[in-house]
Design goal:
InterPro entries: Glu6P/Mann6P_isomerase_C, SIS_dom, SIS_dom_sf. This protein is α/β, with parallel strands linked by helices. The protein has 14 helices and nine strands. Strands 2-1-3-4-5 form a five-stranded parallel beta sheet, sandwiched between helices. It has a four-stranded parallel beta sheet with strand order 7-6-8-9, with helices on both faces.
Length: 321
């Protein structure tokens, strides 16, 4: 796990190739079916290019939209292992309805189905890492499938300008601060994809409960749950708040973050401000996520846990099977 974080920038050297490209139907609307780490990349695409029309479906089958919308979309089936139950079910539904598909995977049943049915696919490198750690590979694969050559060129620069070791020490320090607390990560709605990734990494790698929310919505509800009085203080004191601040956010949102920090600190709650910085949009995204990776990695070590494996997920799969 440590090596996969330390060498993460090398994933951006990878050049994805579409097999059966002649069968790829060009669309401007995309429906991504994926679970867990296999669904993280399309969220980042929405941050990179908000105007892009991507619907993310984290369930069995296909989204409950009208048939015309399904026919006017490219359905991208994303499963790192290629054996994800929900994604395989979506494949069958899409095939039954003769819908346009493309596949991203390292192998498994899904890739076999792509080959058998001459469906366009990208086989991302199988380096033995966890799906959540293959985010560089999968993001480039998605950019290739949607035909964004400029995005591919821009993100490839991260192989040189992103140095994961720059974030290790801060990640270790933050993990020490989080010990014995449940983190709640806040940011602007514009950075939803980043904050969601933080939560997932702390859950899967850090092996701890972690939650997230976005401003301004949380100012209208969630924060009132932490207006600690004597009878509820024991509950509130279990949380550690991380606010991801992006100076490019609406000034009114930044003002709300500053005020929220004060309100929480006035109530003796733990608050950490972390700036989202970078040379370009991709650098901003992945520098923040590398910090999250190191924080989660050292959080697991703080509790004597294995950062890599997800035994409860594997137990659930066996019980379902």
């Amino acid at each position: 796990m440590y090596e996969s974080i330390k060498n993460f920038n090398k994933q951006f050297i990878y050049e994805p190739k579409i097999i059966n490209e002649d069968n790829l139907v060009k669309k401007s609307n995309f429906i991504v079916v994926g679970m867990g780490g296999s669904a993280l990349a399309p969220l980042l695409l929405k941050k990179y290019k908000p105007e892009i029309n991507i619907m993310i479906h984290n369930n069995y089958g296909l989204p409950q939209i009208n048939k015309k919308e399904l026919e006017n979309s490219l359905i991208i089936l994303s499963s790192y292992s290629g054996n994800t139950e929900e994604v395989l079910d979506a494949f069958q539904k899409a095939k039954e309805n003769n819908l346009n598909m493309a596949i991203i995977s390292v192998g498994g049943k899904l890739l076999s189905l792509a080959k058998e049915n001459d469906i366009p696919y990208i086989e991302i490198p199988n380096t033995g890492i966890q799906p959540r750690m293959a985010l560089g590979y999968s993001t480039k694969a998605f950019l290739k499938l949607i035909g964004d050559e400029n995005g591919l060129k821009e993100i490839s620069k991260l192989s040189e300008i992103l140095d994961p070791t720059d974030y290790e020490e801060n990640g270790k320090i933050l993990a020490q601060k989080l010990k014995n607390y449940v983190p709640i990560i806040y940011t602007s709605s514009n950075n939803l994809s980043i904050v969601y990734n933080w939560k997932i990494k702390l859950n899967e790698t850090g092996k701890i409960p972690a939650f997230y929310n976005v401003l301004p919505e949380l100012n209208h509800n969630e924060m009132t749950g932490f207006d600690a009085v004597e009878s509820t203080r024991e509950l509130s004191n279990k949380f550690y708040f991380i606010i991801l601040k992006d100076e490019e956010d609406d000034k009114r949102i930044l003002n709300r973050m500053n005020i929220l920090e004060k309100l929480y600190k006035d109530r003796n709650l733990k608050v950490e401000i972390i700036e989202i910085n970078g040379e370009n949009i991709w650098h901003k995204i992945f520098s923040s996520l590398i910090l999250a990776d190191f924080t989660a990695y050292y959080t697991a070590l703080e509790y004597g846990q294995d950062p890599k494996q997800v035994p409860m997920v594997e137990e659930l799969k066996k019980l379902i099977a």
